[in-house]
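Batch manifest line 383
LIGAND: iron/sulfur cluster
JOB: complex structure
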Amino acid sequence: MIDTDLMLYVHIPFCVRKCAYCDFLSAPAGDAVREQYVEELCREIADYKGKAGHRPVSSVFFGGGTPSLLTGEQMSRILDTIRNCFTLTEDAEISMEMNPGTVTMENLVQYKAAGVGRISIGLQSMQEEELSLLGRIHDAHTFLECYEMARKAGFSNINVDLMMGLPGQKREALADTLKKVTDLSPEHISLYSLILEEHTPLYETYADSDKLLSQEEDRALYHMAVAMLEEKGYHQYEISNFAKEGFFCRHNEGYWRRRPYLSFGIGAASFFEEVRWNNTSSLSDYLAGDHAPADQEILTLKDAMEEFMFLGLRTTAGICRETFEEAFEEDYETVYGEVTRKLIAQGLLQEREEGGKHFVSCTGEGLDLNNLVGGAFLLEDGE
Ligand code: SF4
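JOB STATUS: finished
ARTIFACT:
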């Protein structure tokens, strides 16, 4: 495999309260549990000291949950532990997710001083009725205050997370949210379609409701959003991710390019030297010192080639045939030539040459049917 930098992910599983659609590993917790967790995180990170070889760390991502429930001092302690145990590149991207309603100016200044350079604010919508349907703790005004404070604290790389495809969502409502957000000019916008997860209050309310959007309605909203964002100077670089020039999220790019990552905290998923594993999802076990992989999968060459294709084809840049050949020492044409030609003939894939290299990427229709396209690259056993 190609030698690359390492990425780190830190999971902070605490939230003020559970949102109506959420099935992530997160729950409310008091100060004492949060402090215990931070201590345990630092211990887990220290366990990896010297185990990642010579690989420098080029990105660190704090996700959740709600990382902004940590104090500035706690963030600083975790980042200091990371710096003591790994070598960060000079320009390492250090991101943290935050939720409006959990942020103070003091904390923002401390996060910045601790080394956080990129923040991702979970807005979801500027429409009060949509925020309340989603069970978010904030309103649009709280988001605006949070955004303004972040700018004042000196953050010049901000992502805003949005959600679309909500039950009964009108085109005008999404357009209004997009207009209000792009008027603020954040560097990056993520726009995810709502997935109605079983066992969530939103599922119980809407699973059988005629308010759920049809596939066609959802796609029409998405196409409108992509066009609006492109027009405002946000380049779509992945199905759900849009950025101004120079502000693609390095961490997310790393996932789609199969760069290795170590993850810390409960339920955290790691990928290193072609092995994927997950931490325990039990908070009490984790706090008692259980850092061992709860499960582990050793990827075969076939698994790795399939992943390279279906993750890479989520990006608008697509995959590079020469990189595939260098990574796997296999001829692209022999492994995937036929299926690539078939999907090009169906209008789902396209090819281009750039700098002497050959790329394959999804067309607009291919991005819409990304699961189907990705599925076409699954190989028969023994292939
Ligand atoms: S803030 Fe995010 S992680 Fe927390 S409950 Fe809401 S959706 Fe889930």
